[in-house]
Amino acid sequence: MVGTPKTTIMAVEFDGGVVIGADSRTTTGSYIANRVTDKLTPIHDLIFCCRSGSAADTQAIADAVTYQLGFHSIELDELPLVQTAANLFKDMCYKYREELMAGIIVAGWDKRNGGQVYTVPMGGMMVRQPFSVGGSGSTYIYGYVDSTYKPGMTKEECLDFTSNAIALAMDRDGSSGGVIRLAAITEKGVERKVVSGSQLPYFASA
Amino acid sequence: MHIIGGVVGPVVREVLAVSHIFLVRNELHWYRVIKIHLGITENILRTNLLKYDLSASTFSPDGRVFQVEYAMKAVENSSTAIGIRCKDGVVFGVEKLVLSKLYEQGSNKRIFNIDRHVGMAVAGLLADARSLTDIAREEASNFRSNYGYDIPLRHLADRVAMYVHAYTLYSAVRPFGSSFIMGSYDKDDGAQMYMIDPSGVSHGYWGCAIGKAKEAAKTEIEKLQMKDMTCREVVKEVAKIIYIVHDEVKDKSFELELSWVGESTKGRHELVPKDIKEEAEKYAKESLEEDDESDEDNM
């Protein structure tokens, strides 16, 4: 993938975990190289990242962070904090900001602070948010997410919120499409879902 | 020349004279003897059990590394430091011997901050302890920079212990001549306390003492039910124990250095505030007087 990040990714915190979602389109130019991509990458047992931007860059960074976090977790003999994963992403994305094109959302669960979402956009800043959207498709849904989000949603409400938002983005953004991949991360583990074809939320526009 | 008594023993096998130092051998060992006065040994400094104790890279036939043991002796020569972990925090107390009235009060600290949430009390060679404080600070700082949160005490203790241990492996360096007690408190893991000795071993403790009066201090500490006490209560007990184990005869004046970290300090390691410290010292002095009085009654 070259040029601006061509994706829609999203993550939402709820009490007890996070819900993450992404579209599944990878393009080289206008050719869809992969229409069933998995952009939700596990970094540790209960920590995932959503990748947007250059596929090569984000995969390389995710691999490096997975290694570092795994080592750290074994040294400490504890599950790592989501904050730590986000910090490791931020350090790499900031240090090599001129060479990289990577917009990443880090989300997961840890026992200290529960469900957390950290966004690390291109340039290498890092900030925690109750929910975050990213990728080229995200620009089309800021209005929707800002007006629909309310604090204190349940896991099911978050799953609906995420799949609706990504469906709307996929409808308008030519660089996003395919299926919606969702994952819910809680203390108990990770549940993954795929929403495709006729199951996709449909918003009639006359 | 006939040498009687002293540490060397009655039977001497061989004597070599090297200027004012004599190398004297009995059945087991060579000894370095500074002065021999006619038939009576005087000022014998039994310094080296030559051969196995000159470097940390040598084991003795009975499986000991003497340099490390000598380093621990250096700790035992220093004044006492104790740490007590309680329900909601950790309290440190150090008996800081004042060698000269010209010292500025409060100088020569024996308790340090390693990052905001970790405190460390030391005993032994202070210069060694201070350089290790810098190492510990660097470790904590790097951790925070790499991983984005405060270093867990268990991990810090492991890293510092690894460093201390490294200096017990080579003949080019000597082991650190100090022991360290580290403590921290946070909401998730509660209060924790670890002690590292010159051999590089680190253990977690509820109560710990290092320095010359450590055995007496440990006896006093064992009497406490610290798991059920709060920091406020333990501060007074720590002051009392330091006053109890302080030897009035051998060491004249001392300053008490008290610090704590716990829920009441919101996880920050700080010196105990002046008013609480004075209250604790008052309690300590009164308890000592009570003990003295009860002795007199018995007579």
Give an overview in words.
The complex is a heterodimer of chains A (206) and B (299). Chain A has 206 residues and is an alpha+beta fold. In chain A, strands 10-1-2-11-12 form a 5-stranded antiparallel sheet, with helices on one face. The radius of gyration of chain A is 16 Å and the shape is globular. The N and C termini of chain A lie far apart (33 Å). The relative contact order of chain A is 0.23. In chain A, α1 crosses α2. Chain B is of the alpha+beta class. Chain B has 6 helices and 15 strands. A 5-stranded antiparallel sheet of chain B has the order 13-6-7-14-15. In chain B, β10 and β11 form a beta hairpin. The relative contact order of chain B is 0.15. The N terminus of chain B is likely disordered.
Annotate the secondary structure layout.
The complex is a heterodimer of chains A (206) and B (299).
Chain A: E1 9-14, E2 17-22, E3 26-28, E4 31-34, E5 40-44, E6 47-53, H1 55-76, H2 82-95, E7 102-110, E8 114-120, E9 127-128, E10 131-134, H3 142-148, H4 155-172, E11 180-186, E12 189-195
Antiparallel strand pairs in A: 1-2, 1-10, 2-11, 3-4, 5-6, 6-7, 7-8, 8-9, 11-12
Chain B: E1 14-18, E2 21-25, E3 30-33, E4 35-37, E5 40-42, H1 66-76, E6 81-86, E7 89-97, E8 111-114, E9 118-124, H2 126-147, H3 153-166, E10 178-186, E11 190-196, E12 202-204, E13 207-210, H4 214-222, H5 231-245, E14 254-262, E15 270-271, H6 274-298
Antiparallel strand pairs in B: 1-2, 2-3, 4-5, 6-7, 6-13, 7-14, 8-9, 9-10, 10-11, 11-12, 14-15
State the main characteristics.
heterodimer; A: 206 residues; alpha+beta; five-stranded antiparallel beta sheet; 30% helix; globular; B: 299 residues; 6 helices; 15 strands; 32% helix; disordered N terminus
